[in-house]
Amino acid sequence: IDAVIHFAGLKAVGESVREPLKYYYNNLVGTLNLIRVMDRHDVRSIVFSSSATVYGEHNPIPYVEKMEIGANNPYGRTKEQIEDILSDLGAADPRWHIALLRYFNPVGAHPSGRIGEDPQGIPNNLVPFIAQVAVGRREKLMVFGGDYDTPDGTCLRDYIHVVDLAEGHVAALNHVADR
After folding, report:
1. Given 24, 75, 148, 159, which residue is catalytic?
2. How many C-beta atoms lie closer than 10 Å to residue 111's C-beta?
C-alpha cells in the first residue's frame, strides 16, 4: 500500500447534532488510528474526503477555498478538525503528502448501473427519496422547509456526481503520489 483515500466516518448532520460524542469519537479517533497505522507502515500519502460543511453558514456562495472556515454542526467540525490534524502533520513532517477535498452532496450511480446508492430503510438525504419515487417505491416526494431566503422559500443544495467525485479523488491521489 502506497497511499490511502480516507472516506471513513459518520456523515449525517442531523444525527451529529443529536449524538455529537458519537461523531467526535468515531471520526476523530478513527482518523488518528488510521494515521498512526499508516505511519507505522511507512505509508505517508493520504487524500482526505472532507466536506463543504466546513465553510459554515457565514460565507457567501460560491465558496472559495481560501475562505475562513467555521462549521456549525458536529459533523462539519469533525471534518474541520481532521483537516487541521492533517495540515499540522504535513507541516511538521515533510514525508507526509496530503490532499484535502471539500465537496457537497455526492449523488448518482455508476453508468453501468452495477453500483450506486439504494439505501435500505429511510434515506437521510434527498436524492434517494427522488429515486424511490421514480421507481414507485414511494408515492410522492415531500420537501420540508419553507422559510429559507430563496425565491420559493425552499432550500438550495449543490450536488456532485459520484463518477466526477471518484475522478477527482484519483487526480488528488496521483498528485500526492507524485510529490
Report:
1. 75
2. 9
